[in-house]
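Predict the 3D structure for this chain.
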Amino acid sequence: MASVLEDPSLERHFKGHKGAVTCADFSPNNNQLVTGSADTNLMIWNLNPKAKALRFVGHRDAITSVQFSPCGDLVVSASIDKTVRLWTPRFNGESTVFKAHMAPVRSVSFSHNGQRLVTASDDKSLKVWSVHRQRFLYSLSQHTNWVRCARFSPDGRLIVSCGDDKTVRLWDTNTRQCINTFTDCGGAVTFVDFNGSGTCIASTGSNNTLKIWDIRTNKLLQHYQVHSAGINCFSFHPSNNYLISASSDSTVKILDLLEGRLIYTLHGHKGPVLTVMFSRRGDVFASGGTDSEVLLWRTNFDVFNYKEVLKGHRRRLNPDPSPHVNDIYPRSPHLHTAPSSSIQISPTVADTQSADPHIVEMGPVLFPNTQQDRHGHGSEAPRGGASGGSGQASVEEEGHTHSRTYALEERSGLPRGFSTTLEHIVQQLDVLTQTVAVLEERLSLTEDKLKECLDNQARIIVQAQRVEEQEAENESEGSSA
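Done. Predicted structure below.
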């Protein structure tokens, strides 16, 4: 049983984004934190106070989702610019671009073996991709409005998704069919995820509530209404005993799922909180919001040996045995409102460890003058850390930073007059790539239908042969009589 030690504390903050911080994730080794922002940039922060931070440039519009791969060798990001990028989180800043959807991509997530990606988009579809082959596999299309979030189950057999059609859907990755739909959501659903054992899902939405469902019994287990505005994100603690939520009411709240109550309300952001995430060990968590800051908190409230808990979860991923005892109590659905006894924490010290880290920018930009997106939501990203013009690129070698300024012609290899023409060509190629993706999807559907027709034809032939054999037997019996 977990024991309460001391209150969560704000350990440090990270400043470097020029826009709202929309998403975050910890590396598997808990040494790094990746964040995405409306400023179109992805940043990797080292939790070592003396280490540099890396800014990755490549997206042309706000980033909506980021995640480390299970091995930590890749980072994936999704954006309003309709693309998904796979980054190598090293100093070379390389990335591979997926022209993923016909509309903004709201969510991207790795499967737990790192072999697949699932994306969710405003085009009302989910898509599954092969990471190593870097190709589209199949679509899931039963949502009737924007799809806001999608996640793989821990065993990879299921996908959960949610959207503005006020539903949460469960998909079977083998049959590619929707196997269950939760409609009692009360409004648009903004975020959804599995707990660590894969037996439950939680969902949040515009009606300020958080609901937890048991997917084995399709029952609502817990219903929390502790925020005064919409909930944008949440994260399960690795033990499944706690959950943190981020809300537009400018607070982060910690729920004790075993006792079914709110235990902490954290005040640290100046404005809506858009993202929150526990580390893999659960000893720290990060939050980000519209104030462009990333806050790192230390939990301090649990000393349970979670390595053993996680081993038990992995042993229970096989659904063939009979269900084990529910991970989350109480088992009957009931409403939890914010009690007055919950502890309010308002930190006054912004950073207890170090000054803002030096930022090294990664990723070449072909059109540096088009940093601001077409809709006016972007902002110019400074190069080379605190100083340097928009034409400066930095490379990290053997612990030292070397900076050199390049003219546009030298960096692109072409005269300045060609930049507009090249950008037009790139846009046309984007349209062509998206068209090919649609045709590929339709070809997959055609192949499935053709296979189904062939199977039906084979069954008809077999049935006809049986009828002929039966008629032949009847004729032979009649002639012998």
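The longest strand covers residues 9-15.
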